[in-house]
């Protein structure tokens, strides 16, 4: 820092910065030095390598006098009464005053011009009859007699005749008609201009503007200081680093934000780590990876959409319950979040593709959702027995895959669904069997395979090219062999070989596994065991880890070490699962 605001004490500023660092209000400062010398003022603040300098600078602006303001009491007389004015009122009353000044001045100039034009008219008449006018003046006994005779003879007014008799004989005889006519013409043009100003407020304001510009050009000088609104104009977002984050939401509506380094990748068949403390009958149903500066769009079972920034969700520990979503979003009674997607920008060529529980699909330009009010916005028109289950951002070139809980799947072109407005209902995407429902929607470009997980913790990978494209509205093909041991499908994600997946149970247990550990099998198979479940516990949902492979802190790694004592038993179960998968594949 080589400059400080006016009247800011350097020593006190340095003390304040040190105090903020000590109180942990500003993190990441490693050194603070005063290097002021005869060459000029210089304060040096050194930061850790992992700290965003812009965030620290904005915090310094917010909490210290590095950015300062000066209070001004705008006390002025308004109609003779003292008033404290804001900037708008100050400018408005000044404009009213200027309009009054210019109006009175214009009226004065108009009266003066009209009076002179009237006199010039009389002088022109006198010049046309100069010999007779001189004769009348010479033969009159008094000035009043001369005025009266001139008025009677030529029809002049009192002012015109007075102007003539007031002139010396030499000036009277020296009148030139051309000069008088030129002056009269100029006066009439001036009169027309002044009348136009008085008749039109826009022209009146134009005069005021021109005069203010003239004053600025004559007396204005450069500012002694700079105003840097663009570079350092702060918002809440400027004070928050953009970091990778995990957002989780539970069945009963608790939401929280966590750092991605709270979870460690484990081998398939592990028991996982405790993800949160849940109340009875509650568990995590939605988990996504995003950044703290992205928007989160929340779609509800009633077809509405809400929006907040990710950083507006309170950060919480891995084991805490989080914050009730109703405290962040004004949900209506019986309204529940059914889909949550992160979004950075609302691009012209992007769409929101929606799928409902009953197999209805809809495509709407994402621009239609750019201006979401605080109390939400209608996103889709739903039938009474239907609800929204999945939303994806697309570009009109995707292949859409719908999956049902009974193990059916359909793949069709996104272009089969025409774009419609926000409040439309959509069209049939898949013809469902009785009691079957859609549990997931994926796009073909999201991965080379889909990973399917059942309620009892079994899963598999199946290559996307095994699902042939067909027309929208069909019954689809078999994608998972449902058995009593496997249970129904609960989640499907498009994955690549190096991806990672999180499985969330109805007890709130989370396991993070490598996708490469999950066997690639055909469509009509059950899969292998992905997680050991206690009796009465099932898989509630799954989430793909899209970024950040950071391991959990060392003190938490002991959990997995303690659990590894059961690894022999887990290994045996996994071998049995492989045998089942091979058997199922053979049957297929």
UniProtKB/TrEMBL annotation:
Which GO biological process categories is it annotated with?
DNA topological change
Entry-linked SMART domains: TOP4c
* Top-level taxonomic group: Bacteria
Offer an example of a GO molecular function term for this protein. ATP binding
Q: State the EC number(s).
A: 5.6.2.2
Catalytic reactions of this protein: ATP-dependent breakage, passage and rejoining of double-stranded DNA
Which ranges of the sequence are coiled-coil?
A: 170-204
Location of the Topo IIA-type catalytic domain: 1-239
> Which is an annotated Pfam family here?
DNA_gyraseA_C
The entry assigns this protein to a family as follows: Belongs to the type II topoisomerase GyrA/ParC subunit family.
Listed name of the protein:
DNA topoisomerase (ATP-hydrolyzing)
Q: Which organism is it from?
A: Agathobacter rectalis CAG:36
Q: What is the lineage of its organism?
A: Bacteria, Bacillati, Bacillota, Clostridia, Lachnospirales
